[in-house]
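User: Can you help me understand a structure? I only have the sequence.
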Amino acid sequence: MYWLIAGLVIFFGVHIFSEFRAARGKMIQRLGEKPYRAAYSLLALSGFILIVVGVHKSETVFLWRPAEWGRYAAVWFMPFAFISLAAAYIPSNFQRFTAHPMLWSVTLWALLHLLANGDLIGLLLFGSFGLYSVHAMSSQNARGARPSQLKRPLLLDAVVVVAALVLYWLFLHYHGKLFGVPVVY
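Assistant: Let's start by predicting it. Here is the structure, written out as tokens:
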């Protein structure tokens, strides 16, 4: 459990530090833009690796029994998280609805996985990612993030949906091999 907690602290610590713009600016001034980005990326990656190791090393401690419908909700609503994820990387009209498609994807992913899991690892992992995503959206909105005003061809929206559904299908069918937990639906 310590590996998981250490990874979460490092991963989110780096992300939260970047919100302190004055301190971030001083660090960039001291190190330079590229070395700062390299250090940021290395620390975030290190935290992520510790999270993965921590999840696999931690003993399962059940806290509650999730509702039976939680599993079904995850299976049926995760495609929306994948669509939002794809919309973060493929220019489309989805970006006209929110300035934060990636963060909405993580928030929905976290919420749905909290509904389907009732253990301490899930609470720490999904709870921290969900809380951070909501915080990050609020923080970015305060700094002026706004949805795009640019209208794009509807074909790009279709590309987002198709790419997301293909990726979702892959994750759904290989979830057990990738994460050690097969999806039963």
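Now, to help you interpret it: The mean pLDDT is 96. The chain has two domains: 1-58, 59-185. Let me know which part you'd like to focus on.
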